[in-house]
Sequence to fold (255 residues):
Amino acid sequence: MRLPPPGYQYRDGRLFADFMVAGHPPEVRGPAFFTLARSRVWNRAVELGTAGFGGASLWQHTWISIYRVFLAFFIACLTAVPIGLAMGMSRIFRGIFDPPIEFYRPIPPLAYLPLVIIWFGIGEVSKVILIYLACFAPMALSTRAGVRSVSIEQVHVAYSLGATRSQVLRHVVFRAALPEILTGMRIGIGFGWTTLVAAEMVAAAGLGYMILNASEFLMTDVVVMGIVIIGLVALFSDLLMRYLEHKLVPWKGKI
Fold:
């Protein structure tokens, strides 16, 4: 059983205790039990920035979660894009990789979380793998779709000008599929953030761990603060991907 942080006062917990003892809902003035003042969440954020939560400061929780998500996203980029290119250009690779990807893609991460923990332990590896699996599928399928949408006339023109197969892949196919690849990256990193809380259920630090631990003791201000931080970091990640998309494929949406 997890214990609350030292010095914590059960603000909302008193209402729940009154309900359990009296057998009827307590009298609450206004919606304070269900909503939180922004000042209360901000004060809690300032407090956790110095005092910490669960043995780590708020900034440590945030950076650990950012590290896990972006490490898994980087590994997914290194593997999903080449596999997606191979799936789009070869029926053999499509027959090898497409069935397992389509098999595990609809499965919620919480369903195979116990298997990942059994196989890889409760360390960093299992958390990164769980986030990696969430990022991998949309990136690989988007890359395959981008390759399949390449105009065959462009490929024939490149071959008629004397281009080799590797040159066609690098200068024609990859460039034409780049908008779809970047779109898959945006979707993939979004799935990574949605899987973070599940990946950190057995963690000792991280925003997901902080949210789950706080929810067990009705620390709603900490829960809301963690949700807001995850949303802000995920928004910044999406804006970064949009900036890269604007720089790498400036022609997208203009043809």
About this structure: The chain has ten helices and no strands.
